[in-house]
């Protein structure tokens, strides 16, 4: 199994306790950094039930996601080399199937922050959130056609539309609790969102919630959900239980 359960290296300086992974029964684990700079773990799980857990405290400044209306869109020729991959289609972000729609829908919008926000507004209104309709095979085009999904589907569709408009966008996964908002009944404090590269920086966007949030703790980034899955299994497995909880202390 490959595990992406650690806090992203960019947030390690905020940790107030060490987020050590615990395994029951004990398992030998090896840490590594993947090609996207995420902290990951490799294990060989034995037959039977294995429990994987972690708990930690982390400092957050309590400020909502940054909003930068003046952030500009780059010409492709001016993009850093390592950003170019986030313009390409990927497993769940099928740009070839949505490019024509993207240009017909968003070509008249102002390039830069306003264009990404217009994409978020569209996805937020177009897709209905429903935990019962989660589908690990659904691509961005599938979400666009079916108009239903979970947080990953909102992110995949928004990322695909951004890439189609020549805006680099990457998938993000992490903790997102009900901090600074009324409690919501949705299970667990785990979410997917995306980042767009504008004005020389990666900025957070969230097409599902479509409003700046407090206490977002990044775990991993990649091209799409394939790169940042909490666990990737090589062999038959069954998920017996899954629980993610964040609390403001």
Automatic annotation (TrEMBL):
PANTHER family: BLL5557 PROTEIN, BLR5614 PROTEIN-RELATED
Protein name from the UniProt record: Transglutaminase
Annotated Transglutaminase-like domain residues: 143-209
Superkingdom per UniProt: Bacteria
InterPro entries: Papain-like_cys_pep_sf, Transglutaminase-like
Pfam families reported for this sequence: Transglut_core
């Amino acid at each position: 199994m490959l595990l992406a359960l650690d806090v992203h290296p960019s947030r390690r300086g905020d940790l107030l306790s060490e987020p050590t992974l615990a395994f029951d029964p004990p398992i030998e684990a090896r840490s590594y950094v993947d090609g996207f700079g995420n902290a990951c773990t490799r294990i060989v799980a034995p037959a039977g039930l294995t429990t994987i857990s972690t708990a930690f405290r982390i400092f957050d400044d309590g400020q909502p996601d940054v909003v930068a209306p003046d952030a500009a869109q780059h010409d492709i020729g001016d993009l850093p080399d390592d950003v170019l991959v986030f313009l390409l289609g990927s497993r769940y972000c099928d740009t070839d199937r949505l490019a024509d729609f993207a240009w017909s829908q968003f070509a008249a919008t102002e390039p830069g922050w306003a264009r990404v926000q217009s994409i978020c507004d569209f996805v937020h209104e177009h897709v209905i959130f429903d935990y019962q309709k989660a589908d690990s095979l659904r691509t961005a085009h599938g979400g666009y056609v079916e108009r239903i999904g979970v947080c990953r589907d909102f992110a995949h569709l928004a990322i695909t539309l951004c890439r189609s408009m020549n805006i680099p966008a990457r998938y993000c996964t992490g903790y997102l609790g009900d901090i600074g908002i009324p409690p919501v009944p949705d299970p667990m404090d785990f979410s997917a969102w995306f980042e767009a590269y504008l004005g020389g920086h990666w900025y957070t966007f969230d097409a599902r919630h479509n409003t700046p949030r407090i206490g977002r703790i990044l775990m991993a980034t990649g091209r799409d959900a394939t790169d940042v899955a909490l666990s990737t299994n090589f062999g038959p497995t069954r998920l017996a239980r899954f629980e993610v909880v964040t609390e403001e202390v």
